[in-house]
């Protein structure tokens, strides 16, 4: 099958306000071509659903938990309610957002609670989901399997020295072991990792990452551009050039790998370049807070301008009988009641989008 239907080499490069070197432009031309030779242009928004803001490790040097550890005393205080998590899963279903993964820090709740969240989110969404919840034992994997299709490991960086320094309590070896066991497991799980660009790895260090992808035969990777957190040692995220180079090299080296690229309010102007670099989807955009805002429409437009078929909805509130949709769900009645109680808070925001002043995001 010839998938190369949208690629037009003459169309390439509208630079707008972002300027790229000639070398990067050439690289993007190649990565865009590789993308369209291997995919049909279907592009989506992936939503990470957080279960909790707590983390029992709390010492990764870039993470906001490392600055808040002293403030977070009880896991219960940082845990989201089932109803709010399930509402988010329902929005994913109704707006055609894919659930990137269910996530949270380490030690956020007992396994039985995690299982309950996983089962309910999968039920509301109507499909098996991905999890990114640290190291999961073989026994727990077996119990999660009816609701889970893939496991993502937050590696952050594969550079051994930088990893040791930035993630002192979660050694690469622990994830290595889990990913090996996933390969051996009788139950089939897809495998993915998440990495952050901007922790110190140079593009010349990319073989650490590439070797890891090869070694574990990964199905997917999620990349984020570092968003520096006040109070950490990091002051600056990667520029567009550096970020898209990583994605483009990945696309060229791994033509069929699913690549999900993080963006955010401040970086949303680069969404088109993430497409040229060969990303399959975007994630991390604050879609519930920004639904139907100028930024949400910009992200959609930039993606479509690259010849992509953007299948998710970030901007148009459809006519939906929300209470009827909640009634149809196969979950405990008490959660339905609570979802309905919370629903209006979200719908009011969706119906009255507030454009955040550009300068406020800088
Ligand atoms: S394990 Fe994850 S949540 Fe915990 S401190 Fe590290 S990056 Fe943050």
Shape: globular
Main sheet makeup: 8 strands, parallel, barrel
Bound molecules: iron/sulfur cluster
Proper CATH architecture: Alpha-Beta Barrel
Helix percentage: 40-55%
Kindly describe this structure.
The chain has helices at residues 22-38, 64-68, 75-78, 82-94, 111-125, 138-144, 160-166, 172-184, 206-216, 240-253, 271-276, 294-305, 322-328, 333-351; strands spanning 42-50, 98-103, 129-132, 148-156, 190-197, 220-225, 258-262, 281-283, 309-310. It is of the alpha/beta class and 362 residues long. The termini are far apart. The protein is globular, with a radius of gyration of 20 Å. Helix 1 (22-38) packs across helix 10 (240-253), helix 4 (82-94) packs across helix 14 and helix 13 (322-328) packs antiparallel against helix 14 (333-351). The model is unreliable at 1-16 and 358-362 (pLDDT under 50). The longest helix has 19 residues, at 333-351. An 8-stranded parallel barrel has the order 1-2-3-4-5-6-7-8, surrounded by 4 helices. Helix content is 41%, strand content 14%. It has a single domain (9-354), classed as Aldolase class I (TIM Barrel). Bound molecules: iron/sulfur cluster. The site of iron/sulfur cluster (SF4) has 12 residues, from helix 2. Iron/sulfur cluster binds next to helix 2.
């Amino acid at each position: 099958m010839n998938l190369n239907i949208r690629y037009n080499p003459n169309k390439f490069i509208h630079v707008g306000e972002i300027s790229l070197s000639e070398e990067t432009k050439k690289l993007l031309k190649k990565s865009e071509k590789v993308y369209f030779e291997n995919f049909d242009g279907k592009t989506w928004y992936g939503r990470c659903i957080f279960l909790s803001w707590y983390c029992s490790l709390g010492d990764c040097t870039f993470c906001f938990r490392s600055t808040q550890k002293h403030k977070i005393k009880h896991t219960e205080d940082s845990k989201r309610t089932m109803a709010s998590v399930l509402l988010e899963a329902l929005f994913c279903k109704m707006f055609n957002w894919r659930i990137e993964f269910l996530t949270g820090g380490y030690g956020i709740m007992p396994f039985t609670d995690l299982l309950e969240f996983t089962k309910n989110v999968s039920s509301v969404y109507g499909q098996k989901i991905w999890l990114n919840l640290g190291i999961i034992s073989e026994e727990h994997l077996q119990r999660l399997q009816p609701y889970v299709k893939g496991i993502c490991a937050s590696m952050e960086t594969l550079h051994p020295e930088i990893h040791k320094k930035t993630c002192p309590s979660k050694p690469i070896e622990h994830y290595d072991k889990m990913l090996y066991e996933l390969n051996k497991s009788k139950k089939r799980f897809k495998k993915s990792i998440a990495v952050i660009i901007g922790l110190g790895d140079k593009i010349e260090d990319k073989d650490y990452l590439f070797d890891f992808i090869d070694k574990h035969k990964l199905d997917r990777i999620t990349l984020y551009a570092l968003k520096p957190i006040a109070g950490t040692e990091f002051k600056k995220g990667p520029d567009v050039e550096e970020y898209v180079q990583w994605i483009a090299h990945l696309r060229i080296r791994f033509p069929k790998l699913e690549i999900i690229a993080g963006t955010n309010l401040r970086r949303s102007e680069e969404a088109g370049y993430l497409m040229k670099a060969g990303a399959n989807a975007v994630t991390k955009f604050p879609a519930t807070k920004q639904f139907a805002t100028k930024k949400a429409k910009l992200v959609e437009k930039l993606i479509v301008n690259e010849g992509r078929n953007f299948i998710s909805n970030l901007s148009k509130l459809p006519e939906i009988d929300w209470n009827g949709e909640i009634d149809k769900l196969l979950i405990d009645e008490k959660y339905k009641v609570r979802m309905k109680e919370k629903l209006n808070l979200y719908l009011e925001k969706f119906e009255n989008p507030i454009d955040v002043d550009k300068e406020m995001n800088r």
